[in-house]
Design a protein that fits this description.
Distance between the termini: 15 Å
Strand order of the largest sheet: 4-3-2-1-5-6-7
Helix content: 25-40%
Strand content: 15-25%
Structural class: alpha/beta
Number of strands: 7
CATH superfamily: HAD superfamily/HAD-like
Oligomer: single chain
Order of helices and strands: EHHHHHEHEEHEHEHE
Length: 206
């Protein structure tokens, strides 16, 4: 068995989930600036995540779900997943974003599992709180080791794909490290760099 782990925001999905949510309440620019600094490694991921989610307080949860069901998939996303599965890969999504975005994408794309965070909501509105599997800079590295152990997959048979600073922690546990339209901080640790927004280009390297 082989393992392929994809980041979600700006990798499987063309954009950042939290930025789309922030646009709905008129703070898109403010949140996007924090997102950019976090993904380029200038801010601690946990602090940036909790700061941004706090700004979403009061957004109707049903509206957030509606937005997340319509997130634009990256070019090639629908093709790369089955192509890798045919090659014997279990395909998993790790996201520092939110399950209301990753789970609809998992179902559309046929991904084997998704691990992400949960936006807390009460009485139909976001509370500004968040919890989950992918809250910290080290979370993806921590989770990939657990999954490799569970499935009996080696580093040699692991492929990881991401674009931002919080993807670095999983890069050390894979022999195939893809920086996809990525920030410089991640390109430095990759051995496959793709600059075109087309996920099928990964197949050229496998």
């Amino acid at each position: 068995m082989k393992l392929a782990v994809f980041d979600f925001d700006s990798t499987l999905m063309d954009g950042e989930t939290i930025d789309f949510l922030a646009q709905e309440i008129g703070i898109g620019e403010k949140v996007a600036k924090i997102t950019e600094e976090a993904m380029s490694g200038k801010l601690d991921f946990f602090e940036s995540l909790t700061t941004r989610v706090a700004l979403l307080e009061g957004l109707k949860y049903s509206k957030a779900e509606e937005i997340c069901k319509k997130l634009p998939l990256m070019k090639g996303a629908k093709e790369i997943i089955p192509a890798l599965q045919k090659k014997g890969y279990k395909v998993i999504c790790f996201s520092g974003g939110f399950r209301i975005g990753t789970t609809p994408a998992k179902e559309k794309l046929g991904i084997d599992a998704d691990f992400s965070n949960v936006l807390h909501h009460k009485n139909g509105f976001l509370t500004g709180l968040v919890g989950g599997d992918m809250m910290f800079d080290y979370s993806k590295g921590d989770m990939i080791q657990r999954i490799q152990g569970l499935l009996g997959v080696t580093k040699a048979d692991t492929l990881v794909v991401g674009d931002g600073a919080n993807d670095r922690s999983m890069f050390k546990y894979a022999d195939k490290k893809v920086a996809f339209c990525a920030h410089d901080i991640l390109k430095k640790e990759a051995n496959i760099i793709i600059e075109e927004k087309d996920l099928t280009k990964i197949l050229d390297h496998i």
